[in-house]
Structure formats: C-alpha cells, structure tokens
Specification:
Chain lengths: 295, 369
Amino acid sequence: MTGTDVDPTPDRPESDDESRNQLTDDDALTVESALVGDDLEIGYPTSEKPVVECSRIDIPAGEVTALVGPNGSGKSTLLKSLSNHLQPETGTIRLDGDALQSFDRKTLARELGVLLQETDSLGTITVEDLAYHGRYPHRGFFDSITREDRRAVDRALELTGIEHLRDAELGQLSGGQKQLAWIAMVFAQETDVLLLDEPTTFLDVYHQFRVLETIRERNAREGVTVAVVLHDISQAARFADYLIAMRDGVLYDWGPPDEVVTEQLLADVFNVEATVQYEPELQVLPKRALPDDSR
Amino acid sequence: MSRSRAVDVDTSRSGRDGWLTGTLAAFCLVSVLVTVVAGFVQVRFGAYSMTRSEAWAGVTDPAVVLEPAVWLAFVLGGELPELSQHTIVVWDMRLPRVLVAAIAGATLAVSGAIFQAVTRNELASPFVLGVSSGAGFAVLATLVVFGGLAPFLPLFAALGGTLAFVIVYVIAWKGGTSPVRLVLAGVIVNMVFQSLQQGLFFFVDDIGVAQTAISWLTGSLTGTGWDEVRIASLPAVVAITIAIAGARQLNVLLLGEDTARALGMRVERTRLLLSSVAILAASAAIAVAGIVSFFGLVVPHIVRTVVGSDYRQLIVGCLFAGPALLVTADVGARLALSGTQLPVGVVTGLIGGPYFLYLMRTRQSMGEI
C-alpha cells in the first residue's frame, strides 16, 4: 500500500492542456495509477457535443481521489465512463494496463466496484440480502454460497457498521442507513478499485461522515483505490489524497488538496469567493457567489 | 413437526441458503392441500357422480396405481387395458384435467413472475406483454388453417408468443429498454394481435371450429386429457427448472439495470434468456388451456403478499399457488352451473379482475416492484 507520504507533484504547473499532460507524466514516475484514461471524449447519444473531453486522467492506486466540480461539470459522466457504464466516444480507459472493454463483465466486476448515484428504491429486501448480491460476480450460475462469500459479507457489514441492521428491510431504513447498506454491497464485492458517485449527497452530516470514514477505513485497511465524486469542495479537501477539479467538461486541475485548492480555483471552478486556510489544516470558507460574468 | 424443525436448523446453519422459511413451507403446504381437495372434488362430482368411497377407490385403484404398463399408456399414449368404469372416469377423464390445470397454473404463475422481474413492473404478465395474444393468434391460425397440426400446438403457441414479444421488445428498444416502454408497446401489440384473431373468425366455415376457437380464446380446460398432459409437461418442466435456477438472476435484475451491470451481469442477455423461459412457460399453458386471463398477473401478487419479493421464494410459491388456484377455479368452471361448463378463463377473469382492482385501490404504489 502506498501511503500519503508519497509526494507526486513537487512542482505543480498551471492548468492548461499541455502542462496537465506534463503533470501526469511527472506523476507516473512516483505514483502508480490504477485507472488511466487517455484522449477521452465522452458524450450521450442525445447530446451532440461531448460532455467531457480530457486528454489524460489518472486515478492513483491505493489512494483516495475525489472528483469535484460544480453541477454539470461532467464529473458523474466521467465516473460512469471510468466504471464502464458509458463507453467513451473516443479514447481508452485502462485498468491496471488493460482496456476496460477487454475485460469479461464478471471479471471486471471482481476488480472494479461502482456505486452510482441513482440507486433504485427497494422496499422489502434485507440489508444482508443486498450485501450478498455484492458476491454476484464471484458466483457462477448454479453456485451456492461459499464460506468465502459469507466472510466477505460479514466483513462488509462490520466495516460499514450496520451489522445490527442485518435483517432490517431497506424500506424501513433512513437515507443514510440505506446508503451504508449499498456501500456494504459494493464492499462485499471485494474489488481493488472502488468508484462512488456522490455517496454523501442528501445525507445528514452524521451519515456523511459515517460514509466517508467507512470508505477511508476500507482504503487504509486494504489499500483499495477509491475515486469518489463529491460536490462539497471543503469536504473533498479534508477527505481525499488527490483532487480532480473539473469545469465545463474539462480537467481544471489535479493534485493533492493543499496544492489544488486555492482561492483562484474556487473562483474559477465554483464561481464563489472564498478564503482558503492552509494552517493548521486545509479549510475552505466560502463567502459569496461571484457574479456570472466574473469567470 | 419434524418438517418445521428441519427448516429451523437449515436457516440457522446455512444463513443465506436458508431461503426455505417457515412461511414459505406453510404456504406451499396449504397450497398442496387446496390442490388435493379441489382435485378430489373435481374427480368425484360431475355428470357421473360418485360417492366419496367410490371416488377414492377409483383414485387408488391398484389396477392403475401399481401397474407400470398403465402409467406408460398414460404418459406415452397407447392402449389402456380393461379397467372398471369408476377407474376409467377418474383416471382417463377427470384426473388428467386436474393435472392440466395444475401444470397450466404453475407455468402461468411462473411466467408472470418472471416477466414482472424482467420488466421491473408489477403490471407485467404474459397477457400484458403481448405473449398471450401472439400465442393465441398462432393457435387460432393453426386450428383454422392447418387443422391437422394440432399436436404441435405448443410449438406454434411458443412461436406466436415469441414473435409478439420480439415485436414488443424491438419497439420498446431504444439503446436499452424501460419497463414503461415495454408495457406500452405490449398493450399496442396486444390490440393488433387481438384484431387479427377476430379477423380470423371470418374465415371459419365450420361452427364447431368457431366454438373451439372461442372457448380456446377465453381459456378453457373442457375436454382436456392425457394428450394435453403430454403436450405441456416437457416445456413446463424445462421452463420451471430454469426459472428456479435463475431466481438469483431475477433478484439481481430487481436491483435495477445499472446495479446489475455494475455487478457484472450482462443485463440484456439475461433479460432475453429469462424472457424466453417465461414465453416457453406461458406457451405450454396457452397450448393446452388457452388464454386464461389475469392468472399470470394476479398469482405472483398473491404469493408476493405472503412470502415477500425474494424470487427464490416467490418462484417456489408460484409453483404451488398456481396449481391450487387454477384447479380450484376449474372446479368452479366445471361444476358451478349444472348442465353446462364455463370456460375457466371466465372464472379467473371474474375473480382476478376485481381482486386486482382491490389491490390497486389499497396499495400505495403500483407499477414498480
């Protein structure tokens, strides 16, 4: 497991296209990337222009990377492509060096787990049953449950701290508990890479922390690579090892939070005036919205 | 007693494999009882009524029960040896009808349950998705145009059902399918095939064929015998086996398309495979019993309210509840009016329709599972 003590970007250049390539190239010397996207253009069948264009994106192995940006900046779209839910129009995404398309679906699901933003509301399924569905890629059509499956589910429930809700039905749970149950399912998948789309949105503060701490814990214990979309920049700054800031479908900046998060970035990307404190720890204090034409 | 204890041990020891809960076991047991009682009533009463002991003697006649040759004659067709009159009435006329009702009930219920999971829609059933009317049209065309091909009815029913479902699926497809689009397309395709069915009646010269066709389109078990048992059982066994094995896939489909895909399922392929199983099951029933309305829609709902929506339990529940309900309904169809028989589809429609309206009235949400 690589710790956070690795310093990937000693000198972080400004964020134009050329320097961004430079940045990741520099970086590849020090940090190994679990997921790499090259020359990506990602769009939807309904949209004419690509929603996301990015020449290079790296999700460093064993680290927690947060994708941040305002609504509509393309961070969820990017995550969908990284998780093979949305095929890029051009470019390739590689997982440990192999293109995503070259994976068999189940093999991929054993390597890469994903929790998308819109999970369907399920009423009567129990938390434990949901967690067992995480074992789907590990089981054949006729396979019954193995000891390994049981162990993985027990561990997932323990790690998410919802063992006591094991037999509760999803419909009876609060939004935060539901989210933890879904996370237990992805954990039970036991993948090396974990992608999560806005796992804290719509949760109360307590459960936001619970979710983030649970993910952090999983990363610390097992060196799982995490990429997570967060819309709250101050939360992301405290939580992640790396930030990827996006604006209008392009990468604005990439790097450790204390280098990426600047007052300039908050103005450029989020269109807010804010003060950023670096001591004693990184803190973002948003003040007011900037007028629309100030970008 | 020993049964319920075994269930307890099972659940505590094997955790998730213990889907065989006490509720499910009790539900199945009750269903079996209902099936047996209704079956016995069916066997005993009718134009040729028997006393209870006479009927029982007929059912347990050693000349049948202990005679492999007779069984072989039933199962494979062929000459029956000399039997007493009671035994003939029981074993050659009334019991096969009960069996056909049981097979059709089980397959229709399982088919409906599968369609509801595949489309993630509570309103789905072989009827709603056009399968019934497609199969109905095919069977009607066979009866009217190629009368000699009657033994291949299930095959034609399956072809017609598949054709209708493929049309529905293709229309509903737009880079993937959605439950609502599927049902909408199903309704339209349904209407087209029903018009075709009605159109076919103009080409019927023989009043007898017309009557067969009508009783067929309303769903009837009148006059079914061992031939029908033979026709339906093989596709029924195949479909039911795959349905039970695929219950976990159905559960994962219920998690939603994106989640199923994230878990490594090839969603469209799985959907198509399970849909074919559902079509096969429905065709087996339609080929021998005609279009029994509402059955495939309502039975999974009844089972769901008792055993929950875990498909490992739901499919098994449908397997037992379907026969119980259709055999009972057929008792009503055959014996309610003395002197004449109703098509069983009339009975299921009259009971199933209002029950479904009641469900819609009392449930908060309807449409999504």
